[in-house]
Amino acid sequence: MEIVFVGWNHRTAVLDLRERLSLTPDRAREALNGMFAERLLVEGAIVSTCNRAEIYGVSEHADPVPELHAYLSRFHSVDHETLSRAALSGRGSDTVRHLFRVASGLDSLVLGEAEILGQIREAHRRAAEMKTSRAVVNRLFTSALECGKRVRTETSLGTRPASVPGIALQLAGRVFEELAGRRVLLIGAGEVVELTLRLLADAGVTGISITNRSPRNAEALATMYGGNSIPWDDRESAFSQVDIVLSATSSPEPVVKAAGVKRALSGRRRGPLLVLDLAVPRDIDPAIDSIADVYRYDVDALEALARKNTEERAAEVPHAEAVVEEGVRRFHDWYSGLQTVDVVKGLREKMETLRRAELEKHSGRLSRLSIEDRQLVERVTEGLIAKILHEPTVSLKQGALEERLDRAAAARALFKLDEERE
Amino acid sequence: MDAAHPLMPPLYTLLGALALIAYAVAALLYTAAVFLDRRSLGPFATAGAAMGAIFNLVALWLRGHTLHTVPYADILGSLSLFGFFLAALHVVLEIRHGDRALGPFLMPASFLFLLLALVLPPRAASPGPEMRGSFFALHVTLNMLAYSAFTLAAALSGLYLLASRSLRNLASGGATASRLPSLSFLVGATRTSLSVGVATQLLGLGFGVAWAVQVWNPGSRWLLDPKVLLAFATFGFYAVVAFRAHRGAAPVTTARLALAGLVLLALSLSSNALSRVHGFDRFPPVARAQRS
Asked: What are B132-155's pLDDT values in tens digits?
């Protein structure tokens, strides 16, 4: 019996192949059912995201990886050699380490991203629903989630945003004490604007004004976020009414001139004004930098910040890897203790300790007994424990592997054998 | 007139030392929390600042009790009071806004002012009746509170200019911006500090005038005393800055002016040597004549 994983991700498989190997929730269920039907796995769960499709499980096969490759080649109708060449796989602690690294965001396209935790939680939930996860996979996934959370709380791997919208939100947080109630002007109504607006709106920004060459797009976006659309010609004067300006049009030349902004701001009750120019070529005349209290960032600046944050995240990798290794060691301790012999031994030791403690507690009164009577008490208590443990011992050694593992895990939890070990 | 003055009691030295230690520890903890990203140390820094302020206050009271006058009847007592107000205002502002970025700057100042008050022994002058009474007490207390608020506004303004510059150079390495408070907080807190300072100085000057009218001969021309003139100039300057800030002046301009005001503050605080009526260790001739 061994813990195993096979999978494909952004590092090993090109997009074209990843698309063919991707697993929707329904296809993931179908694949798991097939692997169980062919007895390739006795426990299993599938983590499937846009960047990875990975199968984790427990197998009784001596060398399960080639057989899993063969099965998945048939399942996806992908050439076996192509699939095997692009595959990642691991056994034992390598599997555990891989899942823990994935959960920690160490294996993600954007280092330290947090969405993967939700995806792993979802994979586990689906497996539990299908009853394909039992003692080992349950523990593997809950430990992976715990490890992912620890990495995020004990290191700053995921604290610095590495995407342009995330950086925009971070900058807004540095300029404004709180975003609730802040007013924002959007110039353009494209995808990037909408994505950034969504983040800002989630953070509490209200008073959304949108202007676009095509008023229809502006009105549609305004309706979606409860804002108002303003005429294109009022875009510069609107600077006086807002705290944040976000611009991303496809105009070949600047659509906002410094002189117009200066004029608009001259009558404004002044506070800091954050201007995010996400367009290439730039929408906002860089000369507005000379206006006091205006903080302008263009795509170059935002990308430089993203690179810097990514570098700072990378510096946290050794700390995160240390947390992962600690998690792997803990899981290994638990897993090796799950072997039936170990549980039976643990149970006997626990009972014997309790028996001795009870006799010790009453040693005063027992000392008044004759030697023969004291020996009798010893034999009676030993016999009683042997009788109590007989049925559980037999049960732990009988039945299918997965049932034995379930019982062993239950016994460890009920009698707190893990705590004794720690 | 000057009688030999008893030494300050050991408890005063002990409380002063405890306040100094608390301020020093708080300064170190604030620095670690803000600049080394050891945020878990933040609450301990706050506790240190609060403890320092409490010890400082009790020491001030004991000082006044021992000298039989208000604790700030001399320049050293006033410095100690100034340090106390800085620490107390900072703790209040921190609790109000949950931001510790000012700690590394203000705690050393509180430490320094208290250290001066402790190291330099008080003059053994026994204060006359002019240096007692509620008008005098309120005049000095409120002016000290106002100067502390203006100092705080200057510190906030310095941080604003630093954060502003850091944000402008962010992409090319303005790493400190993430450890500084947001610009909008600094703008708001500066405005509040200026307003508190102007309001308390207005009252302080009012009580000062009332006290002067009571104590001094109208012919003494106390209104033309350099320190009095500087105090009115300081008030006028900050009143204009605070008014402009509330009317929506550019925060950068307000920050620069609040920093520039430090010159007036320094002059005002150090102008006792030029003053006939604010020499704490001597009585003004007119008042002396009246008493005799």
From this structure: 677 887 888 888 889 989 998 998
Residues A327 and A344 occupy one common structural domain: no
- Whether B133 and B119 map to the same domain: the answer is no
A and B: number of Cβ contacts within 8 A: 63
Contact criterion met (CB < 8 Å) for A176 and B182:
yes
| ipTM reported for the complex, 2 dp | 0.71
Domain count of the fold of chain B:
2
Structure tokens at A408: 């062993």
- Write the CATH number for A37: 3.30.460.30
Residues B136 and B264 in one domain: yes
C-alpha distance from A294 to closest chain B C-alpha (Å): 9
**Does residue B25 or residue A226 have the better pLDDT?**
B25
Whether A132 and A12 map to the same domain: the answer is: yes
Over residues A376-381, mean pLDDT: 92
Cross-chain residue pair A270–B248, CB shorter than 8 Å: yes
| Coarse DSSP helix, strand, coil percentages of chain B, rounded to the nearest 5 percent | 80, 0, 20
Q: Are residues A146 and A174 in the same domain?
A: no
For chain B, which ranges sit under pLDDT 50?
1-5, 280-292
* 3-state DSSP assignment of residue A72: helix
What are the C-alpha distances in Å from B37 to residues A10, A403, B31?
A: 34, 50, 9
User: Does the distance separating the beta carbons of A289 and B168 come in below 8 Å?
Assistant: yes
Name the one residue in this structure whose structure tokens are 């689906």. A126
Using alpha carbons only, how large is chain A's radius of gyration in Å? 31
Q: Domain check: are B24 and B146 in the same one?
A: no
Domain of residue A389, residue span: 340-421
Task: Enter the DSSP assignment of A286.
Answer: G
Among the ranges given (A104-108, A130-134, B139-143), the one the predictor scored with the smallest mean pLDDT? B139-143
Same domain, B275 and B139: yes
Determine the structural domain holding residue B292 and report its residue range: 128-292
Choose, out of B36, B160, B164, B183, the residue to mutate when testing the contact with A (most A CBs < 10 Å). Answer: B183
Q: Both B114 and B139 in a single domain? A: no
Asked if A49 and A128 touch (Cβ cutoff 8 Å), the reply is no
Provide the residue type at A177 as one letter: E
Asked if residue B177 and residue B87 are part of one domain, the reply reads no
Catalytically annotated residues of A: 50
If contacts are CB pairs under 8 Å, which of residues 29-88 in chain B contact chain A?
Answer: none
- Flag if A174 and B168 touch (Cβ within 8 Å): no
Same domain, A170 and A267: yes
| Continuous H helices in A4-107 | 15-21, 25-37, 64-76, 80-86, 93-104
